[in-house]
Amino acid sequence: MAQRGLLIVYTGHGKGKTTASLGLAMRAVGQGLKVIMIQFIKGGWKYGELATARRLAPDFQILPLGKGFTWEEKPAGEDERAAQSALIKAREVIHSGEFGLVILDEINNAVQLGLVELKQVLDLVKERPERLHLVLTGRDAKREIMELADLVTEMREIKHPFQKGILAVRGIEY
Fold first, then answer.
1. CA 163 to each of CA 139, 157, 166, 169: distance values in angstroms, whole numbers, following the listed order
2. Consecutive 10-residue runs of the chain (174 residues): their mean pLDDT?
3. pTM exceeding the 0.85 threshold for the entire prediction
């Protein structure tokens, strides 16, 4: 029986959504799948995972297409343009047939911020090839997305070093 691709959602307000998807990417590459991560919000920083992806290329790629984190209620137009470009790229790679696993990092945040429409994401999920595994990360995943998912994991913060005044730690948070 041919295996169908899974829809996986990592959401919640705790740390670890992107990290979980990166662990899944390592497992998938180890099993011979080609993996791509499209980052909808992240961009501008030199994250550790970018260096790892270069070492694993061409089997693992990361495309940081966002403009960086925004905490604005109504993000700037450039954030929306970047998210829409990331969505176009996501559709392209999903239908390319080149990848076994596609990770849309922080896409749930992009929906929550109004940078992409929920309907656009739902359409993308529904039109994906049958054998493609798709991961959606980010806070505040919409109920409609979670209902379609095969696996939903919610990260819940209990304790974080920032609460003690410890800033982002290289190799742990970026």
1. 19, 11, 7, 13
2. 87 96 97 97 80 93 80 69 95 98 97 95 97 97 98 96 88 83
3. yes
